[in-house]
Structures are given as C-alpha cells and as structure tokens.
Amino acid sequence: MVFRHSTGNPHKITNNHHRHALRFHRCPGNSPKKVRIVPQTEPPPNPTDSPQSPSSAELSATRGSRNVESSAMISSESPALTTLDRRLFFIIGAPRSGTTLLQTILSTHSRIFIPPETEFFMRFAPQLDAAAASGDNLKWQKALRNWFRSDRWIDQHIDTEPFLQRLAGRERSAREAFRTLIELHALNANVSRIGEKSPHHCRHVQTIHNMFPHAKFIHIYRDPRDVVASRIRMPWSHGSHLAVAREWDRIAQQHLRDIRDLPPSIYTSVRFETLVTESQTEIEVRRTCEFLGEAFEPRMLDRADLKEHVHDETNQPAFSDREKPWKIRASAPITNCRIGTFKKSLSPRKVAGIERICARSMAKLQYAPLSDHKSRLSWKICDAADYASDFASSAGRSAAKRIRFVKRTTDSRAR
C-alpha cells in the first residue's frame, strides 16, 4: 500500500491565508498577535502503511565499507512510526553548496514535496523538548508560540489551528511536533514522500536519526573555495573568508564521520561538481532517486518552465520572497558555469588561507590545492587582522543575543 490522499480526503488541509482562528499575521512595526492554544482530546486519524526499502547495493559498492552499528537502532523502532516516517528525507550540507539546487530538482518529482527551510532541529527542537521535559504546560505553550512567531513557521504556509488539532493528544516532544508538520505538508501536497532542506541540519544528523531512524540523508558538498567565494557575498553571512572556511571544514569533518557511522541505505552524498556536469547530471539524479526508492522522472531535469519551483498541488514556492536574491539562481538551467568561480573572485592570499584550513578535508573529498600554502609576511599580517575581526564580530553577536534574551525575559516577567 502507498500513503496517498485524494483531493477529496476529508482530512486534507487547505491553504486559506484568510483563516484567523489560530493564525499569526505580521504587520510592519507590529508584533504578531498572541495565540490561545486549545488542546483537543482526540486528534484526527493518522494514516499508516507498510514500509518500502529501496535497494542500496550499488551505493554500497561505490562508497566502500562502512561501520553499520547504528543500523541496530532501526530494528528497535517503535510500532508507532508511520510510513511517512520511513519516507522522510533530509537535504543537508554547508550553506552555498547546492542544497537549494538539489531541492528544486527533487521537488519536481510527482511523488515528492520539499517545503521551505524549517531550521527545526537547530532552532526549535531544543526549546520544545526542554519544555516537554519540564512538564510545565505554560512552558510548552510558550515554546510553540515562539515557533509560530518565527519566519520559518510562516514560510511553511501551514495554519496553526489544524496543526494544534492534529498535535493534541500526542506525546509532547519535538519529534511529534515535527511529525505533525510533515504530515500536514503531505496532506496538502498529496504526496507520499516529504523532504526537508535546512543546510545546517548537517550538524544534527545523529539527533534526527535518533528521532526518525528510517529517515534518509542526502549530503551535498562543494569545493570549499567556491563555497567561501559565494557565501561572503551573502547579506546574512558573518565573518571573513577564514571563518567561513573553518565552518566548511567542521561540516566536512562531520560529514565524513556520518558517512562512516551510518549505513548506506540511510546516508548518501552528492558532489556538486558532478551534479552540474552535463554528462553526469542525469546519472546523479537517477542514483539519488534510487537511494530514495523512487523512479526517475524526466521532468526532473526539465528546467524550461521552472520558476522558483511552485508546487502543483500547494502553489507553494521552494523558498520565501526574502530569500529570492540569493536562491533564485537555483531555478535556472543546470550548468557547470559556477565551478571554479573562486579563481576570479578570491585573491591568492584568500585561496591559500582556505586551502590551509581545509587541507585534510579537501584531500579526503578529492579537491586539489592550487597553492603551496607558503604565506608571505604581508599575508600573515592580513590574516591576523581577519582573525581579530572575526573574534570581535563573534563577541558582538553573542553580546547582542544575550541582551535580546535578557530583554525578552524582563518583558515576560513584567507582563
């Protein structure tokens, strides 16, 4: 059996942006309205189905041997896990590595839907689990309200009322909250497989794997020099080229540990340079489809009519309007023109600094260095200034975050 819902399903949730019962609305200069959370004794029925396990023989052969001790966790899975849990997957990787490109390719599949980024496990799951563990109903409601007020929730185009109705009666936990979200997405999009694309979830693979043992991970990686060259131009990026290089290296090291520790049926990787090479694109997409247990569809490579990827059922784009300036390129035809762009945009000093920091990870991921890493005195002075600037910037952001936290706490107590 396949997890399907026809358009006539009585539990299908519509995207009515004028619903107001438990919906947040943002207005310029105003805070979102508060919401009263009313639990419901019985949630709507939760569809279940039998699992499907795609073959991973070819993936295992290409990747080599790997420690699969963690697969023991899957055998001890709770019977409460649904088929949708087994068909959930995550696209992860360092920012500016091609995660949005892969999202738009896979979202074109008729049986797959990937909503905008949730950043759930890095921003909201810790708060929800802490509130649930406390046993305090007010803390749980507050954690939910903080999530509902966020831009990431608003990007999902899910009304809070059906979400809370479906969540009522379930265990209070981040796992159940996320499961409820993806179930509503599956109902709205009328698909049987849901993906999630938040690049920084690459730091939370083990946490996600513990919550959803059958969920799959696709890690896309890219030449760190191109990643740095792209990212330092982003309006949301912080730090110098050295700070971005250090972050890429930490993510690459974590990826190498994950690909060693998780079985090939759960975790795979995609090389950006291979994905965008014309002769290899279809091969790589077919391999990814096989990993997910879906048949390849030629429409996945048809970019002629793709504009921001608006889903057929939900009319929902893959990313929000505020993200268009740096994500719109992912909707363009697939070309290899972005390979090696660092050679034009980065100075020899910056290239040498990136290669020095990422040397071990670059070697393991087969990226050849261009420099001998020998620094001139002037380069060392400039690098020292960049390090000092990174430290000051980080300290400033931490202080600002602490001030905002204290202010919110004070205002909450005053009310």
Explain this structure to me?
- The protein is mainly alpha-helical and 415 residues long.
- The protein folds into two domains: 57-341, Rossmann fold, CATH 3.40.50; 378-415.
- The protein is built from 19 helices and five strands.
- It has helices at 57-63, 72-75, 83-86, 99-107, 120-134, 137-149, 151-155, 160-167, 174-189, 205-211, 224-231, 241-261, 272-275, 278-292, 324-327, 342-345, 348-357, 359-364, 377-414, and strands spanning 88-92, 112-113, 193-197, 216-221, 267-271.
- A five-stranded parallel beta sheet has the order 2-3-1-4-5, sandwiched between helices.
- Helix 8 (160-167) crosses helix 9 (174-189).
- The model is unreliable at 1-81 and 308-314 (pLDDT under 50).
Short description:
The protein is mainly alpha-helical and about 425 residues long. It has 2 domains: about 55-340, P-loop containing nucleotide triphosphate hydrolases (Rossmann fold, 3-Layer(aba) Sandwich); about 380-415.
Descriptive tags:
48% helix; 2 domains; single chain; globular; 415 residues; disordered N terminus; Rossmann fold
